[in-house]
Design brief:
29% strand, globular, two-stranded antiparallel ribbon, binds zinc ion, Peptide Deformylase, 172 residues, alpha+beta
């Protein structure tokens, strides 16, 4: 078990665009997925993208069930995910392990169709809706260097980012 440090805004590594995983069957990828899962459950959070621990590869993990229901884990691993369809609109209050303590209502697609690979390199495609669809859009934005606070209205976003920069400076 290896819990990694989760980078926080405005760490520039969070803005990196992650590259696709070529070698799906590698030991390094298995280790990365294990570290992501350990770090997500430890935080705790419902999702974590590799970019958030400073690894610019298109890998993310989610578990949108274990906190709400019986505590049983339902870890999902997404390798090279690609959203190929978005439909409708849904608003959920979002937070992010990389922007701790900040929560806002964010508008995203209500339904998505996703293509991804599993740990064995098999290709999958499926539709998702509701909270899971929102969580996946949030995580995969990280792989493109985007954060949920980038989706706020411009003025709100400017004030918030200013405040977060100041906070970070004071911590250093
Ligand atoms: Zn996040």
């Amino acid at each position: 078990m290896s819990v990694r440090e989760i980078l926080t805004y405005p760490d520039p590594a969070l803005r990196e665009i992650a590259r696709p995983v070529d070698d799906v069957n590698s030991e390094a990828l298995k280790q990365l997925v294990q570290d992501l899962a350990d770090s997500m459950y430890d935080a705790p959070g419902v999702g974590l993208a590799a970019t958030q621990i400073g690894v610019p590869l298109r890998v993310a993990v989610t578990d949108t069930r274990w906190r709400e229901e019986d505590g049983e884990r339902d870890l999902k691993v997404w390798i090279n995910p690609e959203i190929i369809r978005r439909a409708g609109e849904a608003i959920y209050e979002e937070g992010c392990l990389s922007v701790p303590g900040i929560y806002y209502d964010i508008k995203r697609a209500a339904e998505i169709t996703l293509r991804w690979q599993d740990m064995e390199g098999n290709h999958h495609s499926a539709d998702f809706e509701g909270f899971q669809a929102v969580a996946l859009q949030h995580e995969f934005d990280h792989l493109d260097g985007k954060l949920f606070i980038d989706l706020l209205p411009p003025i709100k976003q400017k004030l918030l980012k200013k405040r977060l920069h100041k906070q970070k400076k004071m911590q250093e």
